[in-house]
Every structure is written in structure tokens, then in C-alpha cells.
Amino acid sequence: MFITxxxxxxxxxxxxxxxxxxxxxxxxxIGNTSLSILELLEYNLTRKDINYALSSGVIVIDxxxxxxxxxxxxxxxxxxxxxxLVSGDYYFYNFLSSKVKLTDLGIYILETIKAExxxxxxxxxxxxxxxxxxxx
Length: 136
Known about the structure:
Shape: globular
Helix content: 40-55%
Number of strands: 5
Strand content: 5-15%
Order of helices and strands: EEHHEHHEHHEH
Structural class: mainly alpha
Largest sheet: 3 strands, antiparallel
Strand order of the largest sheet: 3-5-4
């Protein structure tokens, strides 16, 4: 059982999340950093994939990130009608610039993936030994 700030996740649901290739991929891409939604799209993830990870509670929009004030990042940009920051696409641009980070659940999935990879790497393959030639 895993407890998040929104709900309690039982072991069956946690197993489903750990086996979901989309969530595993997103968690592996983000890792211990935060990336913008635009950067996630550059990894050939879809908007649907990102929304699914958000709704599953694996990632969350990082409100502490300075990207939420993206209009302050470009003080020298002219304010005309062709500027995306002034046009109706401001909120879309702001959304794409939003940083996402892993939640506690996402970090748990990431640590589980890393532990499984370490286990696989540490296993020594058993080789079938054939007859060996002896030289005297």
C-alpha cells in the first residue's frame, strides 16, 4: 500500500502503475530533475501521455518553478500582436513552459525501476560448461 497526498494506492494498483510502459518511460525521462512539458513532448510523448501521468499522480506541475512566470523571463521581448506572450496563446505557451517533477509516487516508481535494473545487472548468467581440453 502506498499513500499519496490525494489517495491510498493498494498493491494491485501500484503493480499496474509499475508495469505501465508510458508511466515507466516518463518517470525514467524525468528522473530526479524537472522538465518542461515542451521538453517531454520532444521525447515523443503525447499530450495524452502527459495528462495520464498527471492524473495518475506520478508527476505534478512544479509551481515553485520560475517558468510559471515566463513573461518575466523575456523582458526585452517587444509586446506586439504577433508576440505569443500577448496573443491568445499566452496560456498555452505558459502551459508548455511549465515544469513537471515526480511526486512521491513517481519517485517510488523510479527507485523501484533502478532497484530492478541493479538486480538484473548483478545476476551472473550461468554458462553451460562443455568438455574442456586439458593440455599436459
